[in-house]
């Protein structure tokens, strides 16, 4: 009778339940051959004593082993390791410490070369103060109205059907609400069949690229371009071609020159308050671009994540509203209107595209959260969204004016920027201070500013977006104060 | 002065605002050359009259055109089409009807061959009664407790930080809660760094396959296998190899034979209550499979979507709890514990894999819904999840026994099935009735049964899963009654 209690070590500080530590250890002993098949096990009372655990704990371990088919109990004879286990050569199994451990690394190699790295920063809430990349003020968002809708939906059994599996395009209720919202506000003569609900604009970009791009296909983006989109396109194997962005948006002549040289499959563009430069594509260039797309037969992703927040006269309609051929995939999001973590956006496209992309979406995550989608639809219907947008336009316009004024007044000699027509940030070039140093110095003073290195893949910029929308006047003053102290 | 009013047709029934119909039409006229640059436009009052719209509507249209840069107003002279538009040859533009339309089809071709089709059925709530594929009873789910948590979170500003952008792995609060839950209940000695939160198990399968599979790589699945997983693997370009599934689960000898012939990259398996067959992989085979994975260096996706619902003695621990090498990617979901549309699941793996897969997740949809994740974490912490699981195990066990009894009694001579040890459905083979016919006849009587054709890609089965968990006793009786009437 082997000293089983010597083979079993228990770590009471471990997260793993003691009975599982015991049963796991014994499994390892059996597999390693130290506990031979047919071995009679000591009685539970006896072993419990020597292990100094409660007898029920040991019984639970024995139950576990029995349920797993490692041991069997014969009436009036006792408990034994079962006979019919496969004969395992000990060297066939790694020797493990009795205490259960979890592998540090995968046995198979994960091919790093296939992974496009996304930068991961320290979460902003760990800073005293943050100038973000151009995010909404979450303190103003109608989150309570949203959770109120969720709560009231969950109280009415008529909405139970939304707990079942649904369609990958999203619930029709929201698709209908959004299509008339987009008809009225953005001149998109679409029907619900032209809309798929996504987890934010990001999923729309990903699914579209995944559907249209084969490794090696050429795509066009702006220089600079929203770094998340560039990386996503690269993740799908696209060859990135960058064309300059000036005060009127992407240089369409440069696009045409590229089209003559290479077969372009897809062009990614933000037409309103481009990320990062905040410029808007001029009407002339929109028409030229649509013509080029028709002539050279490429798809356009019009990412319009920021449409709602335009502070000049009425905003220019999306390029998609002029698209007669069906070249434009129009993508929007609620991340800027509500809060980033709400993860809801939409893709607008001709029906054949929506159908195709919905199959892709099945593969990715099956469908969206139907209950959330219905709650959002109700926020549109009861006017909450519209009121909130109007309110935020006023607030953010004030904050833009105040913030740009502060920048001019305090550090106008050391940064250059244009006051944006819309959006939530200014694209500011730092003239004689290296941004990495500025970032460090600000950090020491408790201020976080955006990471400028994310653009360096395109070309090197000493420029970052300074988000003004999420900061009230007091915060703006403190932020700019620290910023100016961090400049030489 | 051309008769502009003749060129503008207004459809008051259209979803598009009238002023946008007018401005869009005029844009088309300008682009088509019918409205030449420099043309003087009629006064708003005059044109409003002839179009029979309110003058403000027309002014809004003119504002829109001006904002978009199509027209300009010269003081005391009037309003003109601007001079500096690009000279567009009319044939360069498709002739469009004045009324704004949206393209029926994309201009570019969407390559059907690259899209793996997922079957799309009629939503179950359109039927009087449904025998589903094995889904939980949504009427029993603690959705109200969940929305209560959401509501109370949204009322406390301390949780505001969860509205900001966060990490692709999910909020640490839930990762910590889940890792100790999985430690205690499933013998997984993991830490939060081994967990990524996903949108359901589906996203875990997709991201893992996307990360590990290159087109043409060989993967192994069971025959039969969960049809959603097979299609997802195909979507990533995998070569599917099917090995038989018998009463003890996947035939591991067949797996070994395949490993000797081909380089296997990945094996997908459901170890508990396999979908569709409901069988559980025996302990012997688990050990053999782990050894093969170590020997032939392939990854295993252990999809454990159903672990909580085992009705025999205590369930066998997941294979991942025995994994010493780091071959197993362990995937779980809350779809069966809460409701399918909640879209929350998790991937458990060594940290290097979690890091790699989190970059993939950034590309796909950036991150999950942080507020939801915190609410779910609280449901674990305050015991709601645990109570619900225990309650459902009792309820579903009763329903299984009752349902299998009914099947045996009413149509036992025309179907063959084994009473499952766990899960939410029985895998029933119809002996002398073609399932397509049965499906049709049941439908005529208001009963929906699962689609059997989804398995035919593997081999032809006249077998479907008959879900018992979502039907109370009355519903079970009516369902089986209709089913028996639909059999010859």
TrEMBL record, chains A, B:
Keywords: Aminotransferase, DNA-binding, Pyridoxal phosphate, Transcription, Transcription regulation, Transferase. The keyword Kinase does not apply. Pfam families: Aminotran_1_2, GntR. Residues 16-84 form the HTH gntR-type domain. One of its GO terms (molecular function) is pyridoxal phosphate binding. In the C-terminal section; belongs to the class-I pyridoxal-phosphate-dependent aminotransferase family. InterPro entries: Aminotransferase_I/II_large (IPR004839), HTH_trans_reg/aminotransferase (IPR051446), PyrdxlP-dep_Trfase (IPR015424), PyrdxlP-dep_Trfase_major (IPR015421), Tscrpt_reg_HTH_GntR (IPR000524), WH-like_DNA-bd_sf (IPR036388), WH_DNA-bd_sf (IPR036390). It comes from the Bacteria. This is GntR family transcriptional regulator / MocR family aminotransferase. The keyword Chloroplast does not apply.
């Amino acid at each position: 009778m082997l000293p089983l209690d010597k083979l079993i070590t228990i770590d009471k500080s471990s997260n793993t339940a003691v009975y599982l530590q015991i049963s796991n250890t014994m499994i390892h002993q059996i597999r390693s051959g130290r506990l031979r098949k047919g071995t009679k096990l000591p009685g539970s009372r006896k072993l419990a004593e020597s292990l100094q655990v409660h007898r029920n704990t040991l019984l639970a371990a024995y139950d576990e082993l029995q349920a797993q088919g490692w041991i069997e109990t014969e009436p009036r004879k006792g408990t034994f390791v079962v006979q019919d286990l496969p004969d395992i050569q000990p060297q066939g199994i790694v020797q493990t410490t009795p205490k259960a451990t979890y592998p540090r690394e995968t046995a198979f190699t994960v091919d790093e070369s296939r992974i496009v790295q996304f930068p991961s920063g320290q979460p902003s809430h760990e800073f005293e103060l943050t100038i973000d990349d151009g995010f909404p003020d979450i303190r103003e968002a109608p989150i309570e109205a949203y959770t109120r809708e969720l709560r009231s939906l969950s109280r009415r059994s008529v909405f139970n059907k939304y707990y079942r599996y649904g369609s990958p395009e999203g619930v029709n209720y929201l698709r209908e609400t959004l299509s008339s919202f987009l008809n009225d506000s953005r001149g998109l003569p679409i029907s619900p069949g032209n809309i798929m609900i996504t987890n934010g604009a990001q999923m729309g970009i990903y699914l579209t690229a995944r559907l249209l791009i084969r490794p090696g296909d050429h795509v066009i983006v702006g220089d600079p371009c929203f770094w998340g989109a560039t990386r996503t396109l690269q993740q799908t194997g696209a060859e990135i071609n960058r064309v300059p962005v000036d005060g009127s948006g992407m240089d369409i002549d440069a696009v045409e020159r590229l089209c003559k040289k290479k077969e372009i499959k897809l062009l990614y563009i933000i037409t309103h308050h481009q990320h990062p430069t905040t410029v808007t594509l001029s009407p002339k260039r929109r028409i030229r671009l649509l013509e080029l797309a028709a002539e050279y037969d490429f798809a356009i992703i019009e990412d319009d994540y920021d449409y709602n927040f335009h502070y000049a006269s009425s905003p220019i309609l999306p390029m998609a509203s002029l698209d007669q051929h069906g070249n434009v995939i129009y993508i929007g999001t609620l991340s800027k209107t509500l809060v980033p973590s709400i993860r809801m956006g939409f893709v607008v496209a001709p029906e054949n595209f929506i159908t195709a992309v919905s199959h892709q979406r099945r593969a990715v995550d099956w469908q969206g959260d139907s209950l959330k989608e219905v709650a959002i639809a109700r926020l549109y219907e009861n006017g909450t969204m519209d009121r909130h947008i109007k309110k935020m336009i006023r607030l953010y316009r004030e904050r833009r004016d105040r913030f740009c004024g502060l920048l001019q007044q305090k550090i106008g000699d050391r940064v250059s920027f244009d006051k944006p027509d819309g959006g939530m940030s200014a694209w500011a070039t730092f003239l004689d201070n290296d941004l990495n140093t500025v970032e460090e110095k600000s950090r020491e003073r408790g201020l976080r500013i955006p990471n400028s290195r994310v653009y360096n893949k395109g070309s090197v910029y000493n420029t970052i977006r300074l988000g003004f929308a999420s900061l009230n006047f007091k915060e703006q003053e403190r932020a700019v104060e620290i910023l100016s102290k961090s400049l030489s």
